[in-house]
Amino acid sequence: MSSLLEVSHLKVLFHTQQGDVPAVDDVSFQVEEGETLCIVGESGCGKSATVQAVMKLVPTPPGEYAGGKILLEGRDLLPLSTKEMIPIRGHEMSMIFQEPMTSLNPVKTIGSQVGEVLEIHRRDLSAREIRAQVEEKLSLVGIPDPARCAASYPHQLSGGMRQRAMIAMALACEPKILIADEPTTALDVTIQAQILDLIRQLKEKTGMTVLLITHDLGVVAEMAQRVLVMYSGKVVEQGEVGALFRAPLHPYTEGLLACLPRVDQDEEELYTIPGQVSNPADFPKGCRFHPRCPYRQQICKEISPELREADGRLVACHFLPGERVRREEGAL
Ligand code: SF4
Ligand code: MG
Prior knowledge:
The protein is of the alpha/beta class and 332 residues long. The chain has helices spanning 47-54, 82-85, 100-103, 110-121, 127-140, 146-150, 159-171, 189-206, 217-223, 241-246, 251-258, 298-302, and strands at 5-16, 19-31, 36-40, 63-72, 75-76, 93-96, 177-181, 209-214, 226-231, 234-240, 308-310, 313-315. The strands form 2 sheets. An 8-stranded mixed β-sheet has the order 6-7-8-3-9-10-12-11, sandwiched between helices. Helix 8 links the parallel strand 7 and strand 8. Helix 4 (110-121) crosses helix 5 (127-140), helix 4 (110-121) runs parallel beside helix 7 (159-171) and helix 7 runs parallel beside helix 8. The longest helix is centred in the middle third of the chain and has 18 residues, at 189-206. The radius of gyration is 21 Å and the shape is globular. The protein starts with a strand and ends in a 17-residue tail after the last strand. The model has no long low-confidence stretch (mean pLDDT 90). The structure holds iron/sulfur cluster and magnesium ion. Magnesium ion is lined by residues 43, 48, 182. One of its GO terms (cellular component) is plasma membrane. Belongs to the ABC transporter superfamily. Keywords: ATP-binding, Cell membrane, Membrane, Nucleotide-binding, Transport. One of its GO terms (biological process) is peptide transport. It is a peripheral membrane protein.
């Protein structure tokens, strides 16, 4: 069976004054119909750029699609023009963003914005049918008074309600894949939980496929079957969520997991991965994680590790857990 979405060896460059930035560097993954796949990593690791690339939303220039394929049900989206992408966005794949306030138009009512999506994609519907569908979508995402919400402007709604409205907009044309880029980051914890719950319920109800971007492994544990860990524009580990949580194969995944708060731990003891994400215009040679890796050896500074299979997962590290030696502070 072929995957619903298959991204292979995708490469996106940004031409900047500091040089070419490989924001997405040889990224491959598949999304199977009906599953939730999470992409996780710190900010600046290329996860947003990856999904923007999948939606063909990378501005070119300064961006450039420098190679690879994005196959949606076997059809490569990469060569398609902006015009050819219109029926695909919204209808086949749709996206929700981190901050709904920046994605919603402040001078249009919620109803007219959700309606617009339908007008573009469903020319068979009359104005009355569109209004009815708008209210149906708003109620599907748990908005208590859909008619009132439809008549409201974005600033009249709370953050959680705005995010629900964004989801209604994304779902207006019943896309096969919903791409959610950190959909709860700007919301407070209770609302975050409600929105994640909503995405889960909608998935159960509609059978849609979800590609979820997050920096939060707690969200991954709750939402996904499979996870892709990215670092500095590359995939460093990929596999089934349970296995990856039980025994991470990549030192970066191990570091991310160690950062998760645990019930038996004081807050002061919370671990943080030392150092910072490298400047994408100046990635280190060899393994891009080496300046922060507690296991780095000389080879790591020279040769970039390829993704390889181990324990039914994919990992890009020269060493597997049993082969690693933790470096003394200050060594190498
Ligand atoms: Fe660490 Fe080396 Fe593995 Fe990179 S290749 S993650 S530096 S051990
Ligand atoms: Mg981002």
